[in-house]
Prior knowledge:
heterotrimer, A: globular, C: eight-stranded mixed beta sheet, four-stranded antiparallel beta sheet, 11 helices, 30% helix, globular
Amino acid sequence: MAVKAIPHAKIKKPRTMWGDVVLRFSQNLPAMMGLIVVIGLYAVALLAPILVTTNYTAIDLDNVRSAPSLVHYLGTDELGRDVYSRVVWAARSAAFVSIFVPALSLSLGLFFGIIAGYVGGWVDTIVMRLGDILFAFPGLLFVFFIAATIKPAILLWVKGIGLTEFAKQGFVDYIVVFTALSLVGWPGLARLVRGQFLTLRNREFVLAAEAIGVSQWRIALKHILPNAMTPVIVVVSGGIGGTIAAETSLSFLGIGLQPPNPSWGQMISDYYIYWRNTELWPLLFIPSIILVVIILAFTFVGDGLHEALNPYLD
Amino acid sequence: MSEQKDVLLRVDGLKMYFPITQGIVVQRHVGDVKAVDGLTFDIHQGETLGLVGESGCGKSTTGRAILQLYKPTAGQVIFEGEDITAMRGESLRKMRRRMQMIFQDPYASLNPRMTVGNIVSEPLEVHSLFNGKERREKVKELLDVVGLNPYFVNRYPHEFSGGQRQRIGVARALALNPDFIVCDEPISALDVSIQAQVINLLEDLQQEFGLTYLFIAHDLSVVRHISDRIAVMYLGKLVELTTRDELYANPMHPYSQALLSAVPIPDPVVEEKRQRVILEGDVPSPANPPKGCNFCTRCPKAFEPCYETEPEFKEIESGHWVACHLY
Amino acid sequence: MARLLEVNNLRTQFFTQDGVVNAVNGISYTLDEGETLGIVGESGCGKSVGVMSLIKLIPTPPGKIVEGSVIFNGENLIDMSDGEIRSVRGNKIGMIFQDPMTSLNPVLTIGRQIQEALELHMGMDKAQSKARAIELLELVGIPSAADRINDYPHQFSGGMRQRVMIAIGLSCNPQLLIADEPTTALDVTIQAQIVDLVKKLRDDLGMAIIWITHDLGVVAGLADRMLVMYAGMIVEEAPVKELYANPSHPYTVGLLGSLPRLDQVSGEKLDSIEGLPPDLIDLPKGCPFHARCKYRIEKCFTENPPLKTIGVGHKAACWIDVTKDPITTERPYQEV
Lengths: 314, 327, 336
């Protein structure tokens, strides 16, 4: 059958949801600037061994508390450590935190949220009350508590299974910080996921799937989860800046990443005595500025995603 | 014997209560929303039974409880002699192949994250019908049957208009080749000209595939057009059930009479002459229905027994069932 | 009767990311004092935007009235400043909307919401406005009005809320009441109550009404004159009985054919209109209805017919005469 073309009767060229989101995001100037900074952070983190030739732990006793020079671009601290290489390597810590903590919180949040929202009943009660308890603690205090209690246990266990070298290199610090921050992070996400599940499971398309005879788990994973993800993405991306700030606070207080692992929080803690020193003030100033810029960048990206996804949040 | 064979689905004493609870830690059961409160009726093979009533009367809940999307509080749903309320798990899932549903809201009833092809092929997939290539062919065939261009398989629901989305929903319901379809207000969200398209489509499909419909709607004009028999529901109960022409010619329950007289007719000459029965007040809450007849608070003909005892739903004339103390 | 309202070539557009939406495309009509005008059409046909443009009640941006004039009592509403138009809205022109749930403020009592307009437009003091509010609630049939005046919207049912909306719409004795699908969200028995009430109030108070609806049934017993809109244009205008008896635009014919009627024996298939309305961003050349029209001829593809008089008070925008000319195509619509 010959189809006679009627120009206006055609459906317009389809625009996918993600195509729309990318378009809206790219029109948001702060978000795009934030994205560039974030990409820069990961590039520096990835390329740290190339960008820095001096070992960040190396102590140059000939140059203690030196001003910026061609050898030490940002000078050295009171132990003769090269501040530039510390700053660059600390980017790696920040990058790790910005990936692993949200990933771990998200996994925990999704797991418990789906269980609570889909199984319901007493499982729901137990999971949500557990979340409430974690929620009730002031976040930072809870992180102190975990860092102080589980770290020795993990250290013992790691050494026990013969990973002494691993323990020495300070990986345990990372694990503790990631775990602590994730444990504080997941209840909020679990609550969100659960709420989404409760709302979505009464939507007609879920009933329709049930009427077809789709199994419960397939409904949860294929029908509900993809529709629940949009607000979750917004919350997770919006929280990354805060997570980096939290790691910095921990390290500043000396219970986060320990030397030799570099961290901007640690550096601010180490160098804050120089805040009125006419020569050495960059030691404090540089990591602080970088930290502020990075946190702002993540926040802008999060806001940008929120706005870009907003028409789809119902 | 032949009459027995005619009945495809029998609903017997169907009740669907939603509990009202209070308390945070220990939830106390303080009452029930009696959304559906004891329905008994048959649906004959190949017919369209219209179920009408106003919002909140429990008509949609009835449809969902019949399909076991809600677990009924009491009563039986007997499909070809088998009680499906007793079925669980795999046997119920198998049963679902024979009875399907078309939903009211074409925007809410399609998963926005799935393509049209995936939506229509999902029933085939979960019941392991056909394999890859055959399944894709079947999907295209289904889209063609409901009047959609099969070329659209890879598009998402939001790219379609309301009427087209409703066609996608119809294709999904047809995929399993069911005998019985609950049409839950399938056209009330659509524009007038599109409504007629969907009604015509449903009628064509019924003829082609020998389908039996339970057609739930609030629009009596549409129900009159499409149904063979009509059941009128008020506050969780059936008040009248009879053939289409009998209901319009001789409505017996005062609620049916008021409902019929309230429907506007698109003809100013007819409208000028019509006498309306205007009901006073609103429908009572199904959590706290009145004593006696559910309709007694608004009924223009209510007399003493109506406030005391609940009228029995009985056959007044052959095939004409009414629940009213007047008869 | 005296002319109350004269709309000339009104054109409203919305400037969106996807392009310019031609919501209302040059509509002209008049309304006499005390007359009831029904405007029918399907969603997106511009019936609501067209009427809301009269009182400049469209979101700006993205919306903009780009052309036309609205002469109400000899004054052009389109030229009025925001302050001036506000003194007309809710005063000389009352409004009722579709959704009584969202058009009432949930944190203010019913009484306050009625008194607001009275104090603003009529310069009443608290006591006067309260007395008048009670009077209005009694007028729209709310029992024990004096007590209920202190209730909040959630304490009223949907039908009762719509009565409150009508009371607000009528509070300043308007000359014109605009009703935008006021019964669409209501059940049929409640709809009958509201239509009955509006008729009674119209007969008592004598205001003119513009009743916007998609339901050809509701307006049949209510309107004096009808406008049928399609793609932001008026395609037919006629006295109510004439429109239903002799529909003269193929779209009107199709709409009436699409409606199952309660008083008619069915059995035949509905005579539906195929296809979808056009995209308002990318309006077709020629008549906006030609892609769905069974009567179309060559000319319909290239030239948009003007609204021309075909009988007493009866106008239609169509090149052919549906009573005489033959159907040219049974299946006009093809999806591409």
